[in-house]
C-alpha cells in the first residue's frame, strides 16, 4: 500500500461520553510531560503538537523528541504541506485525518479557529497506520480538550504580556487594586515611588500613604468606587497625597472594572502623577481635546504642576491680569469654574489620553 499521499478519514463524531469531559488532568499545564505520554501511547519516535491558525501562523504547543531527530521547523513545514494537500476538503468538527509523508504521519484535527496537527514517526516496522489510527481514535477526546486548554492558556499569556508591555511603556505610575486596597499589580514607575517611601508605599500587600489621614481618605475613595454607581459617588476621583517637603502626589482613581460575566471582584486603577516631573506631555493632549490655545495650555500645565496664578504668570513672562484673562477662557472651554475643578478634570483625562513614550516616567 502506498503511503505517500494516503489519507484516512476517521469517525467524524466523538464518543458521547467524550464531550462530557470538562476537566483536564492535574498536570495539564506541563506540555512536555503530556506530549511524552501521547508519544509513548502511539509508539512514536518523536511527536510534535503544532497549531495552525486561520491567518497562517504556526504555534508549537508541545513536543517530545528524545532522539532529537528533527527540528520544529522541519515538522512545521511537513504539517503545512500536508494541510495544503488537503485543499478544499475541510475537516468536520469532531473528526480528524491522518496523512502519511513517507514514514512520517500528520494527524490534523479542527481546533477553535484553526487546525491542530500531531506529527511524528512510528517506531514499528511495516504498515503502522491501523494501529496508529486506533490509538489516536482512543485519545481524540482527551487530545482536543487538552490542547484547546493549552491554546487558551497561551492566548491568555500573550494578552497579559501585551497589557504589561503597554502599561510599562506608558511611563505613568499605574497601580491595580482590589476593593480592600490590596495591590494586584504595580508597574515599574509605581514601584519606584514605593521605593522612595514618600507619599505612597506598600504595607504588606496593601497600598498606604505616608500619613494616616491620607490613607483613610484613599481607602475610603476606593471602597466608594467599589460600591458602584448606585452610591452616587465620583467614579474618577483625584486625591492629593502629601509628601514631606515635596509637592503632593496626585492620585487619579478609575473604576470599578469587572470581568465580562460580572462574577469577579471589581478592580480599581490608580494613576500616580508627580507634579515635580515634566507633566506637559500628559496634560497637553487633554488641553488639545478641549481646544485650548498654546498659551492657555502653557498656563494650564503650570497650574497643574502646582504654581499659583501669579507664579505661572511670572514663569510665562506675562502680567498676572493677562494670565487671569487666559484662565477665564480656559474655564469657558473646559466648562469649569475653579482651578481645583480644572486640575481635577485634566488629571482625570490624562491617563486616558496619555500615549506610551510621550512623557518622562514618574519616578
Q: What would you say this structure looks like, in words?
A:
By secondary structure, the protein is an alpha+beta fold. The chain folds into three domains: 7-163, Beta-Lactamase; 171-276, PAS domain (Beta-Lactamase, 2-Layer Sandwich); 278-363, Orthogonal Bundle (Arc Repressor Mutant, subunit A). Helices cover 42% and strands 23% of the residues. The strands form three sheets. It has a six-stranded antiparallel sheet with strand order 1-4-5-6-2-3, with helices on both faces. It has a five-stranded antiparallel sheet with strand order 8-7-13-12-11, sandwiched between helices. The longest helix has 42 residues, at 129-170. The termini are far apart. Mean pLDDT is 78; it is low at 1-30 and 353-363.
Task: Explain the layout of strands and helices.
Blueprint: E1 7-9, H1 31-41, E2 44-52, E3 58-64, H2 72-86, E4 97-101, E5 104-111, E6 114-122, H3 129-170, E7 173-177, E8 183-186, H4 188-196, E9 200-203, E10 206-209, H5 212-227, E11 238-243, E12 246-257, E13 267-273, H6 280-289, H7 294-304, H8 309-316, H9 320-334, H10 339-353
Antiparallel strand pairs: 1-4, 2-3, 2-6, 4-5, 5-6, 7-8, 7-13, 9-10, 11-12, 12-13
Helix pairs in contact: 6-7, 6-10, 7-8, 7-9, 8-9
Amino acid at each position: 500500500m502506498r503511503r505517500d499521499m494516503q489519507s484516512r478519514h476517521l469517525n467524524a463524531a466523538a464518543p458521547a461520553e467524550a464531550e462530557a469531559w470538562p476537566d483536564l488532568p492535574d498536570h495539564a499545564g506541563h506540555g512536555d510531560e503530556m506530549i511524552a505520554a501521547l508519544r509513548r501511547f502511539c509508539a512514536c519516535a518523536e511527536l510534535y503538537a503544532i497549531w495552525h491558525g486561520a491567518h497562517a501562523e504556526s504555534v508549537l504547543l508541545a513536543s517530545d523528541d528524545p532522539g532529537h531527530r528533527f527540528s520544529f521547523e522541519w515538522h512545521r513545514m511537513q504539517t503545512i504541506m500536508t494541510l495544503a494537500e488537503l485543499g478544499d476538503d475541510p475537516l468536520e468538527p469532531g473528526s480528524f485525518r491522518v496523512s502519511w509523508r513517507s514514514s512520517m504521519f500528520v494527524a490534523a484535527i479542527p481546533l477553535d479557529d484553526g487546525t491542530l496537527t500531531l506529527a511524528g514517526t512510528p517506531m514499528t516496522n511495516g504498515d503502522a497506520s491501523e494501529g496508529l489510527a486506533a490509538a489516536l481514535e482512543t485519545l481524540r477526546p482527551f487530545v482536543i480538550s487538552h490542547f484547546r486548554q493549552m491554546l487558551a492558556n497561551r492566548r491568555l499569556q500573550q494578552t497579559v504580556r501585551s497589557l504589561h508591555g503597554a502599561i510599562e511603556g506608558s511611563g505613568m505610575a499605574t497601580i491595580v487594586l482590589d476593593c480592600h486596597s490590596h495591590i494586584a499589580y504595580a508597574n515599574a514607575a509605581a514601584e519606584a515611588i514605593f521605593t522612595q517611601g514618600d507619599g505612597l508605599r506598600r504595607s504588606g500587600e496593601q497600598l498606604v500613604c505616608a500619613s494616616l489621614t491620607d490613607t483613610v481618605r484613599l481607602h475610603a475613595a476606593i471602597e466608594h468606587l467599589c460600591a458602584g454607581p448606585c452610591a452616587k459617588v465620583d467614579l474618577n476621583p483625584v486625591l492629593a497625597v502629601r509628601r514631606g517637603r515635596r509637592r503632593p502626589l496626585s492620585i487619579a482613581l478609575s473604576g470599578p472594572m469587572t470581568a465580562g460575566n460580572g462574577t469577579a471582584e471589581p478592580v480599581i486603577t490608580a494613576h500616580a502623577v508627580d507634579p515635580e516631573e515634566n507633566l506637559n506631555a500628559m496634560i497637553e493632549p487633554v488641553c488639545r481635546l478641549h481646544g485650548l490655545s498654546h498659551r492657555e495650555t502653557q498656563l494650564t500645565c503650570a497650574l497643574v504642576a502646582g504654581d499659583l496664578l501669579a507664579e505661572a504668570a511670572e514663569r510665562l513672562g506675562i502680567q498676572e491680569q493677562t494670565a487671569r484673562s487666559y484662565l477665564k477662557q480656559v474655564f469657558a472651554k473646559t466648562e469649569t469654574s475653579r482651578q481645583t475643578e480644572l486640575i481635577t478634570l485634566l488629571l482625570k483625562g490624562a491617563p486616558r489620553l496619555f500615549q506610551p513614550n510621550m512623557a518622562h516616567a514618574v519616578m
